[in-house]
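tokens incoming
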């Protein structure tokens, strides 16, 4: 038996399962009893849900309380009234991969990495196309098995400039009159001043 999560309308991102709004989809490892990653919906080209309907090739059953040591997918009440959280063992996902420390982006003071989790899932997909007059249109592609990707938590690594700014900020925080100086302000000051810590 398969289970389908679907948006109720295109301008409202969350999924619904059995007429209940899904707050979070948690993917867990039943061998360790730990949540590996979670998401609210899946997105390829922005913050919105790009997959209006997803289907898992197994049943998602109702449970009274959370138990991450079982081999079945389940849902239970979320803290928000009327919402549910869904729990899916990663062992049930087709072609599940976990790629660590993928470069997300880099700034003048830091490098941001994320983990990428991907797996195959039957789903409809929102896409963009150009119409006859060159305007972008949004269309929904039919349901088929696609590889979906979810970004994990960010890992921030400071470069040399970022380390220097962090040290200056820590020093300034020791004086209550200077503790509100922002990282942005310190970065701008370093363009004009050679600041050293005593």
């Amino acid at each position: 038996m398969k289970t389908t999560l679907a948006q109720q309308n295109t301008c409202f991102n969350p999924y619904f399962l059995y007429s209940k709004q899904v707050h979070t989809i948690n993917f867990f490892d039943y061998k360790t009893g730990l949540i590996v990653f979670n998401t609210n919906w899946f997105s390829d080209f922005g913050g919105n849900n790009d997959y209006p309907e997803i289907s898992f090739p197994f049943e998602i059953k109702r449970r009274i309380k959370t138990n991450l040591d079982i081999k079945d997918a389940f849902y239970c009440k979320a803290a928000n009234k009327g919402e549910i959280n869904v729990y899916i063992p990663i062992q049930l996902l087709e072609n599940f991969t976990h790629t660590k420390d993928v470069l997300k982006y880099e700034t003048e003071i830091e490098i941001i990495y994320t983990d990428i989790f991907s797996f195959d899932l039957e789903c409809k997909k929102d896409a963009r196309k150009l119409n006859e007059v060159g305007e972008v249109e949004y269309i929904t592609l039919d349901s088929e098995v696609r590889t979906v990707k979810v970004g994990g938590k960010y890992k921030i690594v400071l470069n040399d400039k970022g380390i220097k700014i962090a040290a200056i900020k820590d020093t300034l925080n020791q004086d209550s009159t200077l503790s509100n100086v922002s990282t942005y302000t310190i970065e701008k000051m370093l363009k004009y001043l050679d600041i050293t810590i005593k």
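note: The chain is about 10% helix and 50% strand.
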